[in-house]
Specification:
Blueprint: E1 2-4, E2 11-14, E3 23-26, E4 32-36, E5 42-47, E6 52-58, E7 62-69, E8 72-79, E9 85-91, E10 99-105, E11 111-113, E12 119-124, E13 127-132, E14 138-142, E15 148-154, E16 157-162, E17 167-172, E18 175-184
Antiparallel strand pairs: 1-2, 3-4, 4-5, 5-6, 7-8, 8-9, 9-10, 11-12, 12-13, 13-14, 15-16, 16-17, 17-18
């Protein structure tokens, strides 16, 4: 991982983190960076911007997504069994080990904690789901949006980049039936500016 100067592109800091880390989230304060380890059973909490490792979080399987929430951290891992499954964990600030919230069938897709800090959007082959992070209960599921790899929230809206159909959708995460497809194409990626 690298921290570069925006204007010049000069390398400022570098750190070895994970094996093909798949997702990074900057804490709203800007002081910490959470990295899903990718092909290793770890997630990392780094000091930002100098990328000094503050903590290594051990998981039981490969960590594919990670984000901050009001109760600490949320981690999405790919579990092995008869078939690949998605396992969602939470880690409170004082805990040593992550606590399992829910198991879902299929490989993990994207993750995004909603602005309320208590719910998150996540994706599996079964659809785009909203999860209550305190109880581990699914609030809704949109099966027409499977394996969305990139999810972004701002206010009441979410941008969903769906890999299989190549579409980007804007939806209200409190009322997911209020949705509009913004564009279609190959390998869609979208973010709020």
């Amino acid at each position: 991982m690298h921290t570069r100067h925006i204007a010049s592109g000069e390398l400022l800091y570098a750190s070895q983190t994970g094996v093909f880390p798949r997702m990074m989230r900057l804490h709203p304060s800007g002081s910490s960076l959470l990295v899903a380890g990718g092909a290793v059973n770890e997630a990392y909490l780094l000091h930002a911007p100098d990328l000094i490792r503050e903590n290594t979080i051990q998981t039981k399987s490969a960590c594919f997504a990670a984000d901050f929430w009001q109760g600490g951290l949320v981690l999405v891992c790919a579990g092995q069994g008869d078939d690949i499954q998605t396992i969602v964990y939470s880690l409170s600030p004082n805990a040593v080990r992550p606590k399992k919230l829910i198991d879902l069938p299929g490989q993990p897709g994207g993750l995004c904690v909603c602005p309320d800090g208590q719910t998150a959007l996540l994706s599996t082959p079964d659809g785009l789901m909203k999860l209550d992070l305190t109880s581990g209960k699914l609030l809704w599921n949109l099966p027409e949006w499977p394996l969305c790899m990139q999810l972004r929230c701002r206010g009441a809206m979410a941008l969903v980049s769906e890999t299989l159909t190549g579409q980007v959708c804007l939806l209200a995460h409190e009322k997911p039936w209020l949705a509009r497809i913004l564009c279609s194409g190959d390998d869609p990626q979208a973010c709020f500016c």
